TrEMBL record, chain A:
InterPro entries: PP2A_PR55, PP2A_PR55_CS, WD40/YVTN_repeat-like_dom_sf, WD40_repeat_dom_sf, WD40_rpt. It comes from Triplophysa rosa (Cave loach). Signal peptide: none annotated. PP2A consists of a common heterodimeric core enzyme, composed of a 36 kDa catalytic subunit (subunit C) and a 65 kDa constant regulatory subunit (PR65 or subunit A), that associates with a variety of regulatory subunits. SUPFAM superfamilies: WD40 repeat-like. This is Serine/threonine-protein phosphatase 2A 55 kDa regulatory subunit B. SMART domains: WD40. Belongs to the phosphatase 2A regulatory subunit B family.
TrEMBL record, chain B:
InterPro entries: IER. This is Immediate early response gene 2 protein. Residues 63-86 have a biased composition (Basic and acidic residues). Residues 55-139 are annotated as: Disordered. Belongs to the IER family. It holds the Pfam family IER.
Length: 447, 155
């Protein structure tokens, strides 16, 4: 079956699945963020238990096998612990909201991880040599009796089993009153921004005891609050430009050269609402849950509850493309409000060439849209399709009338199986899809 | 329509209250959306009830006109003083229509907890704004609530 992903037709195949098979899912194991690094060699996941797991791609063997290198666990560490705010009597969750990699500048890898309140810069480095032959201590580390030292020797570096160490190099704390929803590394590779519901701060990676507040939408009277910030991202090439989305479905682009305080936007993106589709839940479903610049920097993509929209940065009054993710849910909004699913925050991502976009849905379905051919496909992350290199069969939701064979009806969808987080390899057709506590990796057959 | 509106209103209120006990504290975004939805439902419900009283046979007003109002007391409703009053008022309206024996108490519905402090008042007291250092940028507020001398153990 034809897939989606660019000029040629691609065929998505199962590659790997990581995580427990148990039906009983431990809350702490639920994956809350997925991110490839700049080269695609490393894939990081964060979970609700505050842990970060990094997978590394195996080097490809000389004899070309059909499937490319697999991702294996490279490092696991506890990034955030639960904390308690004594003044407000509130617990601060350890859940990792976002992970963002820094570009690699030396042998070590660096990433930023954040929970609701604190951002941490982690250094992940390899150690494959150990010094042996110390003068003052034994091989097991105990101090030698000084009287027994009769000669001096120079310690020698000996190879050892590879050890991957993760150490927190910077802790950026106490700068957010509200819950952090986004972090984004700037293209200058020196600064990054962090956004909570009402404010956006600009940090320098080397400085932890202060940051600059660049956006503040908190009203003087909180009773007048009508919208919050839902996501923010730095432009991939212009280090002075960033965007932030709101709960009202609008996006503001700000230029830090215009003013130190970016309360006034440079561009304001909003699509006029269709009055015929107004309902009790119009506000909720128009809230933007994710915003991502294209790799080119020319476009940006936003995800609201039912659709994905691609915007040209040069046109503010409407998106250039709109893709319906699961329009069949529009008539079910009341039930989705009841079971809280309407508040789910789906993310979206671009492929490396910006020709395709991907986002998740329910029943462990995820959707891909080819921007050139306008074709779309629905695939499922399921252990039933988990034979190595098994091709994924497109799925279809029956929206009414007679259900065809292999179609699934809307009422049969499992709303507990939601795919909120997906990531696309920056250069190849390899995707990572987080399905609750499992991480699926799919590859294009021709990859 | 008014039945659905009332249902959504009650649902919203119960969600608002249960979100207070959620781990991680009150989520501003979610609370805002719940408040807005509740307000919209309440407005529809009241409009429907008023119309029924004035002209029992007249059709319902379209929803659009009600949702143009600015949400200027959306967060006050977290305290549910207004909705609580309205619910009691609704009870009376309903009772008068159905001729059921009126419940003459000020008992609040079961799912409403005792009155608590309004959202965000604590936060305003805690803000400590750093003095402007003259370069035109705002420095972030520092909350000294968190113990900063936690030992961070390298893995």
């Amino acid at each position: 079956m034809a897939g989606v992903g660019g000029g040629n037709d691609f065929q998505w195949c199962f590659s790997q699945v990581k995580g427990a098979i148990d039906e009983d899912v431990a809350e702490a194991d639920i994956i809350s963020t997925v991110e490839f690094n700049y080269s695609g060699e490393l894939l990081a996941t964060g979970d609700k238990g505050g842990r970060v797991v990094i997978f590394q791609r195996e080097q490809e063997s000389k004899n070309r096998s059909l499937s490319r290198g697999e991702y294996n666990v490279y490092s696991t560490f506890q990034s955030h612990e639960p904390e308690f705010d004594y003044l407000k009597s509130l617990e601060i969750e350890e859940k990792i909201n976002k992970i963002r990699w820094l570009p690699q500048q030396n042998a070590a890898h660096f990433l930023l991880s954040t929970n609701d309140k604190t951002i941490k810069l982690w250094k992940i480095s390899e150690r494959d040599k150990r010094a042996e032959g110390y003068n003052l201590k034994d091989e097991d580390g105990r101090l030698r009796d000084p009287f027994r030292i009769t000669s001096l020797r120079v310690p020698v570096l000996m190879p050892m089993d590879l050890m991957v160490e993760a150490s927190p190099r910077r802790i950026f704390a106490n700068a957010h009153t509200y819950h952090i929803n986004s972090i984004s590394v700037n293209s200058d590779y020196q600064t990054y921004l962090s956004a909570d519901d009402l404010r956006i701060n600009l940090w320098h990676l080397e400085i932890t005891d202060r940051s600059f507040n660049i956006v503040d939408i908190k009203p003087a009277n909180m009773e007048e609050l009508t919208e919050v910030i839902t996501a923010a991202e730095c432009h991939p090439h212009q280090c002075n430009v960033f965007v932030y989305s709101s709960s009202k479905g609008t996006i503001r682009l700000c230029d830090m050269r215009a003013a130190a305080l970016c309360d006034r936007h440079s561009k304001f993106f909003e699509e006029p609402e269709d009055p015929s589709s107004r309902s009790f839940f119009s506000e909720i479903i128009s809230s933007i849950s994710d915003v991502k610049f294209s790799h080119s920097g020319r476009y940006m993509m936003t995800r609201d509850y039912l659709s994905v929209k691609v915007w040209d940065l040069n046109m503010e009054n409407r998106p250039v493309e709109t893709y319906q993710v699961h329009e069949y849910l529009r008539s079910k909004l009341c039930s989705l409000y009841e079971n809280d699913c309407i508040f789910d925050k789906f993310e979206c991502c671009w492929n490396g060439s910006d020709s395709a976009i991907m986002t998740g849905s329910y029943n462990n379905f995820f959707r891909m849209f080819d921007r050139n051919t306008r074709r779309d496909i629905t695939l499922e992350a399921s252990r039933e399709n988990s034979k190595p290199r098994a091709m994924l069969k497109p799925r279809k939701v029956c929206t009414g009338g007679k259900r065809k064979k292999d179609e699934i009806s809307v009422d049969s969808l499992d709303f507990n199986k939601k795919i909120l987080h997906t990531a696309w390899h920056p250069k190849e057709n390899v995707i990572a899809v987080a399905a609750t506590n499992n991480l699926y990796i799919f590859q294009d057959k021709m990859n | 329509m008014d039945v659905e509106a009332r249902r959504i209103m009650a649902l919203s209120i119960s969600k608002l209250y249960s979100s207070r006990t959620q781990r991680g504290g009150l989520r501003l975004h979610r609370s805002l959306l719940l408040s807005m939805t509740m307000r919209a439902a309440r407005d529809i419900y009241h409009a429907a009830v008023e119309q029924e009283q004035v002209v029992p046979c007249a059709p319902e007003e379209p929803m659009d006109t009600k949702e143009q109002d600015t949400v200027n007391d959306s967060l006050k409703e977290v305290n549910t003083r207004e909705p609580k009053d309205n619910l009691e008022e609704d009870k009376e309206n309903q009772d008068s229509k159905s001729r059921k024996r009126r419940v003459k108490t000020a008992i609040e519905p079961d799912f409403l907890p005792p009155k608590k402090a309004r959202m965000d008042t604590d936060e305003e007291r805690q803000e400590v704004l750093k003095p402007n250092n003259g370069n035109g940028c705002r420095q972030t507020e520092t909350l000294t609530a968190f113990p900063t001398n936690r030992a961070i153990v390298a893995c």
